[in-house]
């Protein structure tokens, strides 16, 4: 009998968990009119991270006689977004943001009343990433750090950090094992804040990735808090320049992941230390889940807080009351009673002088299903974006944009009559 795999994901590739993950098999000897092929079915055992989870079965397709397996629902069930930020660690893992999948194929049939089941083929091992396709993204293979120069899972090519919000994170997918892992982060420090100017290079330093031998989604803190921690605990190795890693003369830094042989594993991302005064007194940093399963971030001005919505649930009772033998109706007696009242605040946030790349980045914020924000109180809140009420303005002569959004906190003020 001739059993073959017609289509399947390539070995060690990334696949979108929210996209179609199709495998197609065929049995060339299959004859639907023959009694020995009665009730014939293809089956596939699904292994997740090396453990068998489920057996799928597929009748032959009526037109092609092939078996088709779609792992989209299974991949989505075993991957999820993870909020892993911690200012105490430079490198962190996000183990549930991706999973390893492999199929073992076989067939079963009723041969003249005798059921038989046979294993036939072993499929490729591939990775399902908690991600969804987007037209502007590179191919997913460009996000696997294992060989050549790849990409961070974040959309931004430049980040701002400040004393108020000193934690900025970059996510990447590390493929260990037979691949060369992302062994270190390389940090190039500069004494001016002019983007792209390498003439003010102060030094080049490297910090070991404590999870370089682990496969999966990881993130690294590249904000000013992390730089101070690296400096205070002497976690760095100098490659070039000043012995002092981080001092008051540093205005910005470029970071990239590198392999154990010092080759670049990713392109550079630029981090700018923002020491200017904000336009409004209450800045807010917003984190949101992008379509690649990473959290992007942006520092906004908080323009004002508007209590926009009040919801009240009430009941109506009969006017007046019986006193003795008389019925008394007083004007001050309640006939409509609010037993539950809710007040929802809306925070208006703004960003000015945005480039085309900034606008593309912030479009993913409007689309994101998972949003958090943190104010100067350093407390993290869940929120959503009012997608029906945002304003993007274009400054024609400066070729820059201004953006105004309304951020709706998930918590509200409410009172209930006891």
Can you walk me through this structure?
It is flat and about 90 Å long. The termini are far apart. A 6-stranded mixed sheet has the order 11-18-17-13-14-16, covered by helices on one side. Strands 19-20-23-27-25-24 form a 6-stranded antiparallel beta barrel. By secondary structure, the chain is mainly beta. The chain has 3 domains: 3-85 and 96-129, Immunoglobulin-like (Sandwich); 140-273, Immunoglobulin-like, CATH 2.60.40; 282-416, Elongation Factor Tu (Ef-tu), domain 3 (Beta Barrel), CATH 2.40.30. The chain has helices at residues 72-77, 224-232, 356-367, and strands at 3-7, 14-16, 22-27, 38-48, 51-58, 66-70, 91-94, 98-111, 114-129, 144-145, 158-161, 169-174, 182-190, 201-208, 216-221, 236-241, 252-259, 269-273, 282-289, 295-316, 321-323, 326-328, 336-354, 371-374, 380-385, 391-395, 400-409, 413-416.
In short:
The protein has 418 residues and is mainly β. Helix content is 6%, strand content 50%.
- Strand line-up in the sheet with most strands: 11-18-17-13-14-16
CATH class of the largest domain: Mainly Beta
By secondary-structure content and strand pairing, the structural class works out as mainly beta
Domain count: the total is 3
Shape, principal axes of CA atoms: flat
Helix count equals 3
Average pLDDT score? 85
How large a portion of the residues is in β-strands, by DSSP E? over 45%
- Find the CATH topology of the largest domain: Elongation Factor Tu (Ef-tu), domain 3
Question: Could you list the spans in which at least 5 consecutive residues all have pLDDT below 50?
Answer: none
- Relative helix content: under 10%
Radius of gyration: 29 Å
> Roughly how many Å apart are the termini?
75 Å
Largest sheet: 6 strands, mixed
